[in-house]
Design brief:
Layout: E1 3-5, E2 12-15, E3 18-21, E4 23-24, E5 30-33, E6 46-50, E7 60-66, E8 69-75, H1 83-87, E9 93-98, E10 104-112, E11 122-125, H2 128-137, E12 141-148, E13 151-159, H3 163-170
Parallel strand pairs: 1-10
Antiparallel strand pairs: 2-3, 4-5, 5-6, 6-7, 7-8, 8-11, 9-10, 9-12, 10-11, 12-13
Length: 173
């Protein structure tokens, strides 16, 4: 099974047993928190970039240091998979566009929520480095299009202002 754990809390993060409030980068749709595992000393920092049109704050791409590498996840306020598609591990091929460049695709896989239940509203990207570089190299925005089996396609816009600053605040994984 190609499923990663994903924790998708919106304002409070657990870091080494302490609750840490994510720090908003002023004038942006980006927040971050810097944390270090108290036992392993591994970086547990995280950066989130929120979708520009979602007023609920429930749609974002999360970049998190896990296992000493940067992992990328998408979390949406709407279901991305049907229960049947999730059961048979039929994940969408995500289409993305950096600024006005050519469209490209990314493979995605499933995630589990905090309780270990398969999530229907979150995806893990299979090429995390590619996702990080797309957001890091964008001048203005990254657009993600997620086709959904048996449902309409969803399109999300992420303004990247503040993303590089957020990454610099959490230090390399």
């Amino acid at each position: 099974m190609n499923t990663r754990w994903v924790i998708v809390g919106l304002s409070l993060m657990i870091a080494g047993g302490m609750r840490t409030v994510a720090i908003q980068i002023p004038g942006t749709k980006v927040d971050y928190f810097a944390a270090q595992d108290s036992v392993t000393t591994d970086n547990r920092g995280m950066v989130r970039i929120f979708e520009v049109n979602d007023t609920t704050g429930e749609t974002f791409v999360r970049f998190a240091c896990e296992g000493r590498v940067m992992q990328a996840y998408f979390h949406g306020k709407n279901p991305l998979l049907t229960p049947r598609a999730r059961e048979i591990e039929l994940y969408p091929l995500v289409v993305y566009q950096v600024d006005s460049q050519q469209l490209k695709t990314l493979k995605a896989s499933g995630t589990l929520d905090e309780g270990g239940t398969p999530a229907l509203d979150s995806l893990a990207f299979e090429n995390d480095e590619l996702v990080v570089e797309a957001f890091r190299n964008a001048g203005e925005r990254v657009i993600l299009r997620i086709p959904r089996l048996g449902m309409s396609e969803l399109t999300f816009t992420f303004a990247v202002k503040g993303f590089r600053e957020g990454l610099s605040r959490i230090k390399p994984c």
